[in-house]
Amino acid sequence: MNTSLKYAPKWKLFLYIFLAIISSLGNVVIAYVTKIMLNSAQNHQGSVQLLVVTATIGSLTLIAIMFINFGFRYLKNDIIQDINLNLKKHIVTYLIYNQKDSQKDGMSLLTNDMKQVETAKIQNELLVIYQGITFIIAVSVGLINSWLLTLIFMVTTLIPGFIQKFFTKNIQEKSKIWEDNNAIYTQKVSDGLNGAKTVALYDVQPVLIRKIINSASNMEVALKKFNYTQGAVGELILAIANVFSFIIPFLIGAVLMFNNQIGAGTLVMIIQLSNDFINPVVDIFQRYNAIKSTDSIWSKVSEALNFKIDDSANEATSDFNSLKVSNLSYEVPNKQLFDNVNFDVKPRDKVLLIAPSGWGKTTLLSILLGRIAPSSGKVEINQVDETGKSYIRTFHILTKNHLFLMIA
């Protein structure tokens, strides 16, 4: 199931659903109190004292729901915190063990992308649950009191759902463009700050600033288009929902009341409940669009969530006999780091590796640890080709002042 909520404690989710049910009863209480008081006044039933008692009970019930809502909102934020920490734990573990992504990509995933996941996915998934419960309760109460008018409202609320489907793909495309530009901007800022001292030596700070600002401009333009598309689709859905889910059903209800088929209290009650027919449905569709906008980001997060540490590969070997590096070379785009590296290591050997900065000492050690694969050559351990395989606990590596000491 492609949801972030499965990374929250189950008991908190069940408690959230329970409190959401209670929170959703607020509008139902208002609708029932309104119906009772209007029907009593219209038919001259009961007394003024009864109206006061009804209003008092309704008010006290709403106050009780208000206090429950304090705990409900706290629980929602607590669940978001739990999910965030769980996701970040998986992502950090993935980045440290996997090391396929660059440091900048990892920083972007942990900061910008995770904030987008929190605001556009986690929060919206929780609110979709709440709005769904609100809709179900309102419809159930409406069917009990006037099934005909409630069914009319329900049918008309389906129309916005068909409309929003035509815009989902467009929103996802705008989101992907913004995500790409945001990653480029983050990289430009990181490069600029890291190279600020070097740039100052050549007195070309304006050029660096201009490049960063241009990247920021592209990112902000993409964000503006993304937000505008989401907002425009939301406005369209809201307008359609108001026409088909409010005005038309209200007209039918007025006709039923004119023919004495329902009372004023029932009509006003259904209209009051109609807020929970329309608003939750519109809100769910809008939040669904926001959730779908995070699909590309969530696919990257999912890689981290599905990553498993291969403990068997990291278990220390008790029978280490030899390490042999043969014709090892490594290339990066447009650059050869090192070529034709050969050496042998026996048990208890200490190897001191000294080379100029940028030669590829860290890269060489990463190859020995199995973190990355060489461009050519091989690494043999105990006369077995282990090139690209993880043997972390076979070696102890000390790095200090550009000197690398490897102890086998």
Biggest sheet: strand arrangement? 2-1-4-5
The CATH topology name of the domain at 5-146 and 262-306 reads ABC transporter transmembrane region fold
How much of the residues is beta strand, in percent?
5-15%
**Mean model confidence by pLDDT:** 81
Q: What kind of sheet is the major sheet?
A: 4 strands, antiparallel
Global outline: elongated
Question: Terminal Cα separation, in Å?
Answer: 45 Å
CATH-defined superfamily of the domain at 5-146 and 262-306: ABC transporter type 1, transmembrane domain
Secondary structure category: alpha+beta
Low-pLDDT segments: 401-408
Number of strands: 7
What percent of residues adopt helix (DSSP H or I)? Answer: 55-70%
Give the oligomeric state: single chain
Query: Secondary-structure element order, as H and E?
Result: HHHHHHHHHHHEEEHEEEE
Subcellular location: Cell membrane
Keywords: Membrane, Transmembrane, Transmembrane helix
Protein name: ABC-type multidrug transport system, ATPase and permease component
Organism: Lactobacillus psittaci DSM 15354
Provide a concise account of the structure shown.
The protein has helices at 10-43, 48-98, 103-145, 147-157, 159-164, 168-194, 196-201, 205-258, 264-292, 295-305, 311-314, 361-368; strands spanning 323-332, 335-345, 350-353, 376-381, 384-385, 396-400, 403-407. It contains twelve helices and seven strands.
